[in-house]
Amino acid sequence: MSEKVSVGIIGCGSISEAYLKSVKVFPIIQITACADINMEAAEKKANEHGIRAMSVDALLRDGDIEIILNLTTPQSHTEINLKALHAGKHVHCEKPLAITRADAKEVIALAREKELLAGCAPDTFLGGGLQTCRKTIDDGCIGKPVAGTAFMMSHGVESWHPNPGFYYKKGGGPLFDMGPYYITALINLLGPVKRVCALSAITFKERIATCEEQAGKIFPVEVPTHVAGTLEFHGGAIVTMVMSFDVWHHSNHNIEIHGEEGSLRVPDPNCFGGPVHINRGGKDGWQSVPLSHGCTDNMRGIGVADMACAIRGSRKNRCSGELGYHVLDVMEALNESSVEGKYIVIESSVEQPPALPPGLNNGELDG
Known about the structure:
Layout: E1 5-10, H1 14-22, E2 29-35, H2 39-49, E3 52-54, H3 56-61, E4 67-70, H4 77-86, E5 90-93, H5 101-114, E6 118-120, H6 128-138, E7 145-153, H7 173-190, E8 193-201, E9 206-208, E10 218-220, E11 226-233, E12 238-244, E13 255-259, E14 263-266, E15 277-279, E16 287-288, H8 302-313, H9 321-340, E17 344-345
Helix pairs in contact: 4-5, 5-9, 7-9
């Protein structure tokens, strides 16, 4: 798989910088061009990284580009995903895959029709921290998982993000913004979700930006900013999850998985590294687990690299559209449960992504 796969970025916002830097670790891919509805933003990013700046339409017509990396806002994901697929390109987008099930189904159906790959962030579960946790569970170190907790609680993004408004529109909020990291991590560790129930609230009807770029600007809140839910997995584990933009401070761990023979403390699923801790119920307490896998720095783009390996190796990509859809299905169901006051059975399912082999060199994704 020595032939590089050419990648073009659509969307040159703040997240694009992380991708442009990290993909250099992976010899299988090369970002060659970028586009944005704001041509000035595309030209700035292109000049900084020595790539071509193009219009969106020109980038989609470029015959050398095989993968479109869709880094637009969530409200534009479906439009760009469909355009990329219609242009004969594989597409990997930032999370979520779409903001409605119907839109996501359309993307997956078109990818299958065109025999192309669709993929979706987050790819943090491919990092050394979460892959170590996966190996720990798969090796039976805590026994069969029976329970868990997952907490992402902050007071929102308006104090630091240069464009916080879209975080409080449909497709945003703590569930759709940070939920994909946590739910994807849990699926990687425990398999697909069977059913959910939830309560939610919009605590503040408006948010006031305090970031330098938009200080004082008022944003209406259209989505729940505190979601408390319970997820039952097909494997039997029951996980309590809270996603909130309404909490000033807390002391909960990001994720813990409790098995029949011990407990596992999982690192922040928004990161690629550790630490990982295990407690097997004896008197020794929590013990550090050495990481079994690499890719522990900020490796945004490892999912794109895995897609490139899948293209060259004729296999399925780990950050698949089906995985992205199942995550979206779970999030939509949590919202519906809160509104309808009942359990929601998850109609979709997905296989656990194959674990990465331990001992790979940095930048490798296949054994």
